[in-house]
Amino acid sequence: MIVEDDALTALVLSEYLTAHGYRVTVAVNGVDGINRFNLELPDIALVDVLLPRKDGFEVCSEIKLTHHGRFTPVVLMSAVYRSLEQAETHAHRLLADGFLVKPFDLDLLVSRVNALVGGP
Amino acid sequence: MIRTLLDELARLRDPRTLRLGIVSGYALTVCFALLLWLAVATDALPWHPVFAVLLGAKLTTNTLALIGLRTDRLALELGGINVAMDAVVMTGAIWATGDTASPLLAIYTIEIMVLALLTNLTCTVLIGGFAMALYVAMGILVARGTIPHLPPPVEWSGRSTTYLTTAFLFTAFVIGAPTFYVAGILRRLKDNERRLETKTVALIEASKEKAQFMANITHELRTPLMGIMGLSDLVSKGIYGEATTRQRTAMGEQKASATRLLSLIDDLLQLASHDAGKVAVKREPVDVAELLTSAASMAQWLLGGKQLQIELDAESSLPALDSDRAKLSQIVLNLVSNAIKFTADGGSIALRARAIEGAVEIAIEDTGVGIPASELDRVFDEFHQVDGSSSREFGGVGLGLALARRLVEMLGGTIGVRSELGRGSTFTVRMPLG
Question: Which residues from chain A sit within 8 angstroms of residue B233, using beta carbons?
Answer without folding.
Answer: 12, 16, 105-106
